[in-house]
Amino acid sequence: MKPVIVVHGGAGRIFKEREEGSRTGVVRAALRGYGILKEGGSALDAVEEAVRSMEDDPHFNAGCGSVLNEKGEVEMDAIIMDGKNLDSGAVSAIKCIANPIKLARLVMEKTKHMLLTDRGAHLFAQAMGIPETPGEKLITERSRERWKNNLEPDSNPQEFQKDLGTVGAVAIDSEGNVACATSTGGLSNKLTGRVGDTACIGSGGYADNHSGATSTTGHGESIMKVVLARLILYHMEQGMSPEMAADTALDYMKTRVGGLGGVIVVDNSGEWAARFSTKQMSWATVKDDQVHYGIYAGERHTKSVDEALASESEGF
């Protein structure tokens, strides 16, 4: 089986001055994940590494760079899932952790549970020896600025929600196992304790070797209403291609609940798709040693892995 990885850096509106950083960030994440797959590593390790790379990149709304809740704090959600046995781990409303995806994986592997939240997740992180990152360190100037703007009496937080930067990855490894991972800081100025689709299995992501894997991004409440990730795999089980399944599910979400979003998909034969109903979504994929990436509908750049690695070391 030839390994494939697909990543997204969030669907929504990506401001002009942030486009380059978003493109660079998703390509870097895809290359990191692909590096693991190329060495014979697992899809699970690859998606975790790709997402961790984007959590560490302030261009994305996950880890460092997460948006702030109504109180001006970072609260993050993440999920990871193994298509081999349907094992999954997730965390929600967690603070002071640099890489929520790492903690989600530990929930999957070191507990009998699938989802830990808030204080319980924090205690578990301490027990696992995960260092605490001061909340301030995760806050970027941009997130603070946006939070302040949304507090203005005449502001419209809905307008800012169009810039929704969840991050995610899906992969299939040389053994034919699939996996997904998704991580987010959620919605800007959300109520304290709000948990969106990301941490919910079947909404923020789903992976099953029998069909494939998907990671979603967009308006969380809408995604949860239609259980978007599982819906896409259901369409694939009925015989649709990844692209057709993604488009059908996104169209349903738009017409049924008025929700916009984006998805990345890989099926169990290595076919992939990156589709979105929002204006933009940063995405990248690596297959057959070729990197493909884009942000706008219809935009698709291609370069070889060697070329991409060389330009990465030169800073793109």
Automatic annotation (TrEMBL):
Q: Which UniProt keywords apply?
A: Autocatalytic cleavage, Hydrolase, Protease
> Active-site positions, per UniProt?
T166 (nucleophile)
Catalysed transformations (reactions):
Cleavage of a beta-linked Asp residue from the N-terminus of a polypeptide; L-asparagine + H2O = L-aspartate + NH4(+)
Pfam families per the record? Asparaginase_2
Q: Where is this site: Cleavage?
A: G165, T166
GO BP terms: namely: L-asparagine catabolic process via L-aspartate; proteolysis
Q: Name one GO molecular function term.
A: beta-aspartyl-peptidase activity
Coiled coil start-end: none
Q: Which domain of life is it from?
A: Eukaryota
Enzyme class, broadest EC rank? hydrolase
User: What EC number(s) does the entry state?
Assistant: 3.4.19.5, 3.5.1.1
Locate the residues binding substrate: R194, V195, G196, D197, T217, G218, H219, G220
Among InterPro entries, the record links this protein to: ASRGL1_meta, Ntn_hydrolases_N, Peptidase_T2
Cellular component annotations (GO), alphabetically ordered:
cytoplasm
Family of this protein: Belongs to the Ntn-hydrolase family.
For this entry, the protein name equals Isoaspartyl peptidase/L-asparaginase
| Organism in which the protein naturally occurs | Bubo bubo
